[in-house]
Specification:
Oligomer: single chain
Number of strands: 0
Radius of gyration: 41 Å
Number of helices: 3
Distance between the termini: 84 Å
């Protein structure tokens, strides 16, 4: 008799847990999670994109008519006068004669060896394979 009561209680708990499991299965949307983890959802999306691209490629492209008239005018280019000698306007055919830094002023700069530079510390590093 005791075994029969224990079995009825066990079957009742099993039925309750089965209902809870079914409710949680649908509330957590386990089917879509399985599709995400296995990659089936991504495969479906790629297939849909490919089909959509095929449909768009098969469509005949019709040029859109412009409803507004287009005015064709000759455009003249005005170059501002160079007021500053350091600023010039380069034309399309300008070729650099040499590469490097160009001084914009015509003043010569005399730089001596010790022009405001002071050696504070002389550091020498020697790299060897010797283990100490």
């Amino acid at each position: 008799m005791i075994y029969q009561i224990i079995s009825w209680i066990g079957f009742g708990l099993a039925a309750i847990f089965l209902l809870i499991a079914i409710i949680l299965f649908f509330s957590f949307d386990i089917i879509s999670l399985h599709g995400e983890v296995s990659g089936k959802t991504a495969a479906k999306q790629m297939k849909e994109i490919r089909e959509q691209n095929r449909k768009e490629a098969n469509r005949r492209r019709v040029p859109i008519k412009n409803e507004y008239p287009v005015k064709e005018e000759a455009v003249s280019r005005t170059i501002p006068a160079a007021e500053d000698e350091k600023t010039t306007v380069l034309e399309d055919e300008t070729i650099l004669l040499e590469e490097g830094t160009v001084l914009l002023s015509n003043e010569e700069q005399n730089i001596s060896e010790n022009d405001g530079l002071i050696l504070l510390e002389d550091v020498m590093e020697i790299h060897t394979n010797e283990t100490i």
